[in-house]
Automatic annotation (TrEMBL), chain A:
GO BP field: phosphorelay signal transduction system
PANTHER family: PROTEIN-GLUTAMATE METHYLESTERASE_PROTEIN-GLUTAMINE GLUTAMINASE 1, STRESS RESPONSE REGULATOR PROTEIN 1
Domain Response regulatory per the UniProt entry, residue ranges: 10-120
Domain of life the protein comes from: Bacteria
Protein name: Response regulator
Keyword set, alphabetical order: Phosphoprotein
TrEMBL record, chain B:
Organism: Cereibacter changlensis JA139
Keywords assigned: ATP-binding, Kinase, Nucleotide-binding, Phosphoprotein, Transferase
Protein name per its UniProtKB record: histidine kinase
InterPro entries (UniProt xref): HATPase_C_sf (IPR036890), PAS-like_dom_sf (IPR035965), Sig_transdc_His_kinase_HWE (IPR011102)
EC identifiers of the protein: 2.7.13.3
GO molecular function list: ATP binding; protein histidine kinase activity
């Protein structure tokens, strides 16, 4: 792990479906974005937030047997920006995350990269 | 019912003996009794009930309502019903569709739905003295609609999810193919496999499918070699996610066997078998009699589907062996991993 001053921003990807996760990572890396993960569970994601320098995150709302809200709360606590990804047509977010961006799966690479740019510029 | 009404001792009620009833009441009662549509008349200060035969089933196991005040017959629901009654007695007509009322007609409270109309009944001077209720119970259709809504929501979610998976498969197929033609062929084959697996799910109960039907659907495109593939295993139900990943993996194996493996020659054979022993579920694809096998130099998206996605979706281990005498692929997982949870709408359905 590099800790240089001009380190490329790193995005945490949380997605439980292996196929979709792998595809997301490929798309992001092709766009020149460095990826942490993909994390498949809340536990993995929380550990990655703890151990890796991440700058923003993409969170699938529904994981295998859980939802990703605890991850969102951990990110919020650290002031790290994130966007949700969901397969649900109109998933209602809990009030504490009401203002967060919600992307519908499947999502195009262009949308992904512009959302991530937006997330990164919101903190810099 | 007409006979029961005639035989009833009305002098014990506020209506008094039948021969003294006002013409308006007699006519209304006669209309209701002659109607095949569920209805009753309620008349007088305490709204004494006179109902027809068609109305009786709505009351279930409630005590006989004939000659009793309306408020007594509907005691448990009176708080909800009385505003409508009061409005009607002021001369208004009341009409509601699929109105929810909580009633007790079987020894416990239940939600029931009614489409009903209350019309005021007036005496010769035009004063409202009672009401007529015509009503159909719509509980079963309201519930059927509610279930259909839940199921539509689930279908919508499943479709979105399938689209996300399809777009990942398409992306990955194009990334790992040398030419557009190759990519197109592979993508079509994979999408067809997903489509066939979906058909198997739809033809069964939407959330689970028999493993043999899944196997047969994923091997169907290789019809010309079907005599060379021997399939054996016990009937077993697979959950939706298992259905898709198994179908995709088998399709990759068969496609490879057709191109490089045992299915390239007439004497080649494939044995596809599975078993459960109470602890583990083991599925094995074994090729024999084909040309000598060499491990491919690079592993593409096809082997990712076999090695990683299949293993991941089944929470198990997959080995893909390029043995010289034939490819062997094994999936091993705990049998308990095959168990699946049904969604809410299906719980209702099964109950």
């Amino acid at each position: 792990m590099e800790h240089g001053a001009r380190r490329a921003p790193r995005i945490l990807v949380v997605e439980d479906d292996l196929l979709i996760a792998m595809d997301l990572v490929d798309e992001l890396e092709d766009a020149g974005i460095s990826v942490a993960g993909p994390a498949r569970t809340v536990k993995d994601a929380l550990r990655m937030i703890e151990l890796q320098d991440i700058d923003a995150a993409l969170l699938d709302v529904n994981l295998q047997d859980e939802d990703s809200y605890p991850i969102a709360a951990a990110l919020q606590q650290r002031g790290l920006p994130f966007a949700f990804l969901s397969g649900h047509a109109a998933a209602a977010l809990p009030p504490e995350f009401a203002g967060q961006q919600m992307l519908q799966k499947p999502v195009t690479t262009a949308t992904l990269t512009s959302v991530i740019e937006g997330l990164l510029s919101s903190v810099s | 019912m007409g006979r029961q009404v005639a035989a009833f001792d009305w002098s014990r009620t506020s209506l008094g003996p039948m021969e003294n009833w006002p013409a308006a009441l007699r006519i209304s009662v006669s209309n209701v009794l002659n109607s095949p549509f569920p209805a009753f008349v309620a008349w007088g200060p305490d709204l004494i009930t006179i109902h027809n035969d068609a109305f009786r089933p709505i009351l279930g196991m409630k005590p006989a309502p004939l000659g009793k005040p309306m408020a007594e017959n509907w005691a448990e629901a009176w708080e909800a019903v009385s505003p409508f009654v009061e409005a009607t007695m002021r001369g208004e007509s009341v009409f509601f569709e699929n109105h929810e009322v909580e009633i007790d007609r079987s020894g416990q409270m239940e939600k029931a739905y009614f489409t009903f109309a209350y019309s005021p009944l007036r005496d010769e001077e035009g004063v409202v003295r009672g009401l007529m209720d015509t009503v159909v119970e719509t509980t079963s259709s309201v519930e059927a609609e509610r279930k259909a809504r839940i199921r539509n929501g689930e279908l919508m979610h499943r479709m979105k999810n399938t689209l996300a998976i399809v777009s990942a498969i398409a992306n990955q197929t194009y990334r790992s193919s040398q030419t557009v033609k190759e990519a197109n062929e592979r993508l079509l084959r994979r999408l067809t496999t997903l489509g066939n697996a979906q058909s198997v799910l739809m033809s069964e109960d939407h959330e689970a499918a028999d493993i043999r039907a899944v196997v047969e659907s994923s091997l169907a495109p290789f019809r010309q070699a079907i005599g060379q593939i021997k399939v054996e295993g016990q009937p077993l139900h697979l959950a939706e996610r298992h259905v898709f990943s198994l179908a995709l993996a088998l399709n990759e194996l068969a496609s490879n066997a057709m191109k490089y493996g045992a299915l390239t020659v007439p004497e080649g054979r494939v044995r596809l078998g599975w078993r459960t022993d109470g602890e583990d579920f083991v599925l094995e694809w074994r090729e024999t009699g084909g040309p000598a096998v060499t491990e491919p130099a690079s592993s593409g998206f096809g082997s990712f589907l076999i090695r990683s996605v299949l293993a991941d979706d089944f929470n198990g281990e997959v080995t893909l062996d390029y043995r010289r005498d034939g490819v062997v692929c094994r999936l091993v997982t705990a049998e308990s991993n095959l168990a699946f949870r049904r969604s809410a709408a299906h719980h209702d359905h099964a109950a």
